[in-house]
């Protein structure tokens, strides 16, 4: 189950679940381990905005009609910025903000079979900001192939990006369907499919895609043909060592940067394993209540409205993101989060020299992030996000219906 984002009290709140607990990094002063995580996150919760953003359709919606209502609204505040972009091309969709600043709509109808990302900022009467995000996909042409292919055609992605085909309905004859889907690479790598469920079929080679190669996906189902091509960019593999609390960024085989980090605390360790960046958000809200972390009075253990430079690593909510609320000595010294990987940042994320901003700007969808030496004893499921690479090749091939 994807615990990506949900509406809690009208707020689009992305869960932050990593390892065995929720994520959203935090820390305290002097680099000393916090007594309780709720205490550490309290300042951020107290500073939370009263504004509540709602995006329609909700996060993760598929088969959205091109004439269906798409709207961003806010209560207890005003919208300050709304952007809607086509994920594959980055093209921004024009829209209009209402005169009172409480709603926004795109100016025209959407394109078919297109994934869009909506990002909204708002402020309450005290000037406290909040961010909302949603990714939606529009319906395919009538009678077209019932399924969704990722990544988007025409995109450039990192070497860890698997091909994922999500079906609208459960597939009974998996061999018949898989045989009608061909995935190939200009590198000549052998590509094999693996069924994670009756509705999800992923494809990947034994090892990461070759940098600079082109991947072609051809589908021929129900008498309809569809071809999707995307390119593999440079190789970037980043390794987080939870023991040394350092992340090493390797680009095309050469170390280009080492960044101090703070990963999951002993109570909420970060998953060990290979994860792949699947989404990027310049700011995002993280609310402990969405994953059951509340204080005795029922309020969230943390409610951070503007977590900067956040990149999703798992469907259950593990992120690598900026952290402006921890003291500088935390990074590289103490693991303090609820499961995410935190990098030093500033509130608002406006300082491009900060480690989190640098990593965000130098990362792309499909890049690999490896976590090792974490205290976590559970096993990261290969279908948790794009964690396919954690499955041994022999087991991967065994999950094909045609091999």
Describe this structure in words.
Residues 1-23 form the signal peptide. Keywords: Acyltransferase, Cell shape, Cell wall biogenesis/degradation, Peptidoglycan synthesis, Signal, Transferase. Residues 236-372 form the L,D-TPase catalytic domain. Pathway: Cell wall biogenesis; peptidoglycan biosynthesis. The chain contains 4 helices and 28 strands. It has a 5-stranded mixed β-sheet with strand order 22-21-20-28-23, with no helix packed on it. The chain has a 4-stranded antiparallel β-sheet with strand order 5-6-9-8, with no helix packed on it. The chain has a 4-stranded antiparallel β-sheet with strand order 12-14-17-16. The chain has a domain at 148-233 and 390-398: Immunoglobulin-like (Sandwich), CATH 2.60.40. It has helices at residues 37-46, 174-178, 355-361, 393-398, and strands spanning 5-8, 11-14, 17-18, 21-22, 52-56, 71-75, 78-86, 95-97, 103-106, 115-123, 129-137, 148-150, 156-157, 163-166, 181-185, 191-197, 200-205, 214-221, 224-232, 236-241, 246-251, 254-260, 273-276, 279-287, 303-312, 319-323, 341-344, 368-372. It is globular, with a radius of gyration of 21 Å. The protein has 403 residues and is mainly beta.
Outline the secondary-structure elements:
Elements (H helix, E strand, L loop, with lengths): L4 E4 L2 E4 L2 E2 L2 E2 L14 H10 L5 E5 L14 E5 L2 E9 L8 E3 L5 E4 L8 E9 L5 E9 L10 E3 L5 E2 L5 E4 L7 H5 L2 E5 L5 E7 L2 E6 L8 E8 L2 E9 L3 E6 L4 E6 L2 E7 L12 E4 L2 E9 L15 E10 L6 E5 L17 E4 L10 H7 L6 E5 L20 H6 L5
